[in-house]
């Protein structure tokens, strides 16, 4: 079966799941998204991208942006980040506060919100405009200069951001932020508010599948740094569901509460899915099923 036919089959297969789960409701701009939508794209490292369904519809990428921010900090700083952020799965929800107190302000990994705040903090020190640096990377790698932030989502994130503000203040109290809390939160909220399509996202992730090489052939990451980011995605990219994703999909994946998933097939390509209804752990329900079917049918997993 061709990849295009497989993608179309998957879109039909997941259709009944689109009524299950719930769209994120913590901000109005996400709460009003129509749940019956599904898109999926596959970008191979050496051929044309293919997609199905709503693969060209922009959505809020939310925490998927955390992979790109992490890549920029690893590119700039190498191993230094790991004295301020762990790299173990958290086994708790993405916005949990409790672990932080036990672990004295050192977040368990860079993909839970606390860890991503530390990554943004470091990117502010390295790049000045951290959200702008992530946006620039996404535009360059996707080849789409129209990729942008949704100002309504950014404002809503800030207006409903008490939990993230609590995480940031708590870490600041342990001396784990270099920049003012408000500056870090602003960069974090704007990065969560990036809007992209499955097509943009799959292309933008290709530097990971190319073991660190950017679209123009220049290195962003070394091969070993790319491997390490894949490892952190596999173990932490979907929060307390990382075990289930590894079991069912067998690829490094990063999720966002906008319903997107980015999955890397190292050396082969990138899959992006979007289905806004989430399971109770905040990951796209139909997206997980779609990735499961794709890797099961093709046999393309890292295992
Ligand atoms: N998992 C996510 O996508 C969470 C992002 C969301 N904006 C938050 O900070 O809570």
Automatic annotation (TrEMBL):
GO molecular function: glutaminase activity
Pfam family, one: Glutaminase
Catalytic activity, EC: 3.5.1.2
Keywords in alphabetical order: Acetylation, Hydrolase
Catalytic reaction(s) noted: L-glutamine + H2O = L-glutamate + NH4(+)
Record carries keyword Transferase: no
Enzyme class at the top of the EC tree: hydrolase
Residues annotated as binding substrate: 63, 113, 157, 164, 188, 239, 257
Annotated GO biological process: glutamate biosynthetic process; L-glutamine catabolic process
Gene3D superfamilies, per the entry: DD-peptidase/beta-lactamase superfamily
Record has Acetylation as a keyword: yes
Family affiliation: Belongs to the glutaminase family.
Subunit structure: Homotetramer.
NCBIfam families in UniProt: Gln_ase, PRK00971.1-2
Protein name: Glutaminase
The organism's taxonomic lineage, starting at the top: Bacteria, Pseudomonadati, Acidobacteriota, Holophagae, Holophagales
């Amino acid at each position: 079966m061709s990849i295009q036919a497989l993608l179309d089959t998957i879109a039909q297969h997941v259709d009944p799941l689109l009524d299950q789960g719930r769209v994120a409701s913590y901000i109005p701009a996400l709460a009003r998204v129509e749940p019956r939508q599904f898109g999926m794209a596959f970008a191979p490292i050496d051929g044309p991208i293919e997609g199905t369904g709503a693969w060209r519809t922009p959505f809020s990428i939310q925490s998927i942006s955390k992979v790109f921010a992490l890549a920029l900090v690893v590119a700039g700083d190498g191993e230094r980040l790991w004295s301020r952020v762990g790299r173990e799965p958290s086994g708790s929800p993405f916005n949990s506060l409790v672990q932080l107190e036990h672990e004295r302000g050192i977040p368990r990994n860079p993909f839970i919100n606390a860890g991503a705040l530390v990554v943004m903090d470091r990117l502010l020190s390295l790049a000045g405009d951290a959200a702008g640096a992530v946006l620039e990377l996404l535009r360059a790698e996707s080849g789409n200069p129209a990729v942008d932030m949704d100002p309504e989502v950014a404002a809503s994130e800030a207006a409903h951001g008490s939990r993230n503000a609590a995480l940031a203040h708590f870490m600041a109290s342990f001396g784990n932020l270099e920049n003012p809390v408000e500056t870090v939160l602003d960069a974090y909220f704007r990065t969560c508010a990036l809007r992209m399509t499955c097509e943009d996202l799959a292309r933008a992730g290709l530097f990971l599948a190319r073991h660190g090489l950017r679209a123009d052939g220049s290195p962003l990451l070394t091969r070993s740094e790319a491997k390490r980011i894949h490892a952190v995605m596999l173990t932490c990219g979907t929060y307390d569901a990382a075990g289930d994703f590894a079991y069912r999909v067998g690829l490094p994946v990063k999720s966002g509460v906008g319903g997107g998933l980015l999955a890397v097939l190292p050396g082969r390509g990138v899959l992006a899915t979007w289905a806004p209804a989430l399971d109770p752990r905040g990951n796209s329900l139909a997206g997980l099923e779609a990735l499961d079917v794709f890797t099961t049918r093709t046999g393309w997993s890292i295992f």
